[in-house]
Amino acid sequence: MSQELEIQELKEQIKYYQGIIKNMASPIIPSVVPSTILVPIAGHMFKERFDSIRTNTLAYIGKHRDTEKAIFDFTGVTVEDIQAFDYTELTDELYQLNNSLKLMGVRPIYVGFNPRFVREIVQAGIQVELESHISFRAALQKLIKENNRSLNTLG
C-alpha cells in the first residue's frame, strides 16, 4: 500500500470518528413525557459545541414536528468544563438557543446549572430569562403535573 493511499484512508477514518464524536456531543433523547425531548450536556463547553447542540436540536425538531418541549440538562457540566468559557459568551449562546427554540414553537427548559455558573452570571449582571429547574426530575415532575391538568380539563 502506498503511503499516499494510507494517508487518505487515515484521513477518512478521522473524518468518520469526528462525525461520531460530534453526534455524541449532543444526543437527543425522547422523554417519557409526551412531546418532550432531553438533551443531556456533559463535558467541556465551547462555542462550536453550542453551535452543534443548537443545530442538532433544531434539525431534530424540524423532523419531529410533534416536539413541544426541550429539556437541556447541564448536570454533567463541571466548573472546570466552563472555566475557559467567557460567561458573557456562554449566556449569549444560551440566549440564542432559547430564542431559536421559541421561534420553532418549542418550550426550552434548562436543568442542572452549576452554582458557580449561576453566581458568575448574576454577579456579572447578565440578563437572561430562562425557565430552569434544579434537576431533570424536578422538570419532569412539573411537566407531568401540567399534562395531567390539561388531560383532566379535556374530560
Q: What is the helix fraction of residues, given as a range?
A: 55-70%
Anisotropy-based shape: globular
CATH architecture identity = 2-Layer Sandwich
Per CATH, the superfamily is STAS domain
H/E order of the elements? HEEHEHHEHEH
Summed up, the helix count is: 6
CATH topology: Transcription Regulator spoIIAA
Number of domains: 1
Percent of residues in β-strands: 15-25%
Spatial strand order of the main sheet? 1-2-3-4-5
Instruction: Enumerate the spans where pLDDT stays under 50 for 5 or more consecutive residues.
Output: none
CATH class: Alpha Beta
Q: Average pLDDT value?
A: 83
Q: What class would the helix/strand composition place it in?
A: alpha/beta
Task: Give a description of the structure.
With 155 residues, the protein is α/β, with parallel strands linked by helices. It has a single domain, classed as STAS domain (Transcription Regulator spoIIAA), CATH 3.30.750.24. It has six helices and five strands, in the order H-E-E-H-E-H-H-E-H-E-H. It has a five-stranded mixed beta sheet with strand order 1-2-3-4-5. Helix 2 runs parallel beside helix 4. It is globular and about 65 Å long.
